[in-house]
Amino acid sequence: MVILAVGGYDPTGGAGISADIKTSHTLGVYCLSIITSIIPQTNKEVYEKYDLSKENIENQFKSVFEEFEIEYVKTGVLTSQSIDILLKYIDKYDLKVICDPVLASTTKYNFVDEKLMDKYIELFNKSYLITPNREEYNKIMEFVKNKNYHLKKDLYILITGIDDILKRNSTTINIFKGFKINKEVHGTGCVYSTAITAFLSKGYKLEDAIKEAKNFILSSIIYAKKTKYGYNSNPTYINKETVIKNLSYAIYLLKKINFTLIPEVGSNIAESLPLPKDFNDIASLTGRIIKNKLGGFYVVGDIEFGASEHIAKIILSASKFNPKIRSCMNIKYDEDLIKTLKEKFKDKFIISSFDRSEEPPNVSTMEWGTTIACKKIGKVPDIIYDKGGLGKEPMIRVLGKDSIDVIKKVEFIQKIYNSIKEK
Ligand SMILES: Nc1ncnc2c1ncn2[C@@H]1O[C@H](COP(=O)(O)OP(=O)(O)OP(=O)(O)O)[C@@H](O)[C@H]1O
Ligand SMILES: Cc1ncc(CO)c(N)n1
């Protein structure tokens, strides 16, 4: 698959063509790119907008259409000259255009004047989908009304916000629920519209492409790159395939460890999609990791989504505190081990706990216990333990950013346990 991104260049890589290429590449789609303007900027301000000449843009178009067959085009920051050229190519190659109408930067630098708005209306009427944020949508509709213009009836409009509203012919046809993450991230509009374009180029139907791109942009925000003045979106794709691969490799790694910290009830390891809503967003073993008679262990069952409740509840609660925590494994409790980890490895492991005797009635122990353990220290710990209760085995739970991270922590903990027991 190939897509073409036409937009501005942001040297920090947070928005524009750089973000488009990273997004497309992360999704396995080859991204051609045409630069309309060079826009030096930070997350605090835009320094300038240097528009490339009509001749140069014309040659950029000529080169990519000479070398490749292109069906989908995503647009970012455009200029009058680039829109004029694009309009010709849309007709000549019957292009499907996804236009992200970037009227201004998040730092309030205007990219568009009235003359250019006229051109944008012409482009919208030759586009498949436009993806304005709420402010841009209101400006476009006011401009259309004031100039007595009309938008074609079959134009899809995705109004982005936290929830995104898909309209066609002024009728709402779907709403894509979001989840506010407390970060102001630069370039989310670019990444989102490019992700939609990439999924469309893979053959996804529009609403499926938007749904998948929504998961993609949320992951890209969760894993956004901290910069001096803010955050840059970090195109990140974690889907069911990623989770299953991680868990499979994690179990492969576990089998290389002399893992003996197996509780009587057995162990399980689970990993979730980003921002899991329920058990179905979390994969684990359908069976358990259980001791065998030779001092080793068996891994029983397959990896399936929805297979775990106990460990899944821990992840569902922990991810509310830190959406980067997507995995957990329960291992055997040992008092000396916890004591040693607390005294000698506090720089490596953040440890918290809960006391079952303090559990209120009618709660899920794992949800209540995980929440208590996180609230106690104001973050998600690496280890949450409890000393058990009536008919309940004491337990250690190891948490991490994914199941491979968790296994590496378990391997270290096992070595500490072995060193204690050898003394
Ligand atoms: N902090 C956030 N938490 C959750 N979702 C977010 C956040 N910021 C942006 N998004 C999502 O990213 C997508 C695009 O973001 P937005 O609506 O901000 O576009 P935009 O204003 O064009 O972005 P930009 O101009 O920064 O490129 C939307 O689906 C929105 O829900
Ligand atoms: C180059 C570029 N494209 C898009 C945006 C929108 O944020 C930006 N700030 N810079």
From TrEMBL:
Q: State the UniProt keywords alphabetically.
A: ATP-binding, Kinase, Multifunctional enzyme, Nucleotide-binding, Thiamine biosynthesis, Transferase
Q: Which Gene3D superfamilies match?
A: 3.40.1190.20, Class II aldolase/adducin N-terminal domain (3.40.225.10)
Transmembrane ranges, per UniProt, are none
Gene Ontology MF term list: ATP binding; hydroxymethylpyrimidine kinase activity; phosphomethylpyrimidine kinase activity; thiamine-phosphate diphosphorylase activity
Q: What InterPro entries does its record include? A: Aldolase_II/adducin_N_sf, HMP/HMP-P_kinase_dom, PM/HMP-P_kinase-1, Ribokinase-like, ThiN
Q: Which GO terms describe its cellular component?
A: cytosol
Q: Name one Pfam family in it.
A: ThiN
Domain Thiamine-phosphate synthase ThiN intervals: 247-410
Keyword Isomerase belongs to the record:
no
The protein here is known as: Bifunctional thiamine biosynthesis protein ThiDN
Give the pathway.
Cofactor biosynthesis; thiamine diphosphate biosynthesis; thiamine phosphate from 4-amino-2-methyl-5-diphosphomethylpyrimidine and 4-methyl-5-(2-phosphoethyl)-thiazole: step 1/1; Cofactor biosynthesis; thiamine diphosphate biosynthesis; 4-amino-2-methyl-5-diphosphomethylpyrimidine from 5-amino-1-(5-phospho-D-ribosyl)imidazole
UniProt domain Pyridoxamine kinase/Phosphomethylpyrimidine kinase: residue ranges: 10-230
Assigned EC number: 2.5.1.3, 2.7.1.49, 2.7.4.7
**What family, per the record?**
In the N-terminal section; belongs to the ThiD family.
Q: Provide the function of this protein.
A: Catalyzes the phosphorylation of hydroxymethylpyrimidine phosphate (HMP-P) to HMP-PP, and of HMP to HMP-P.
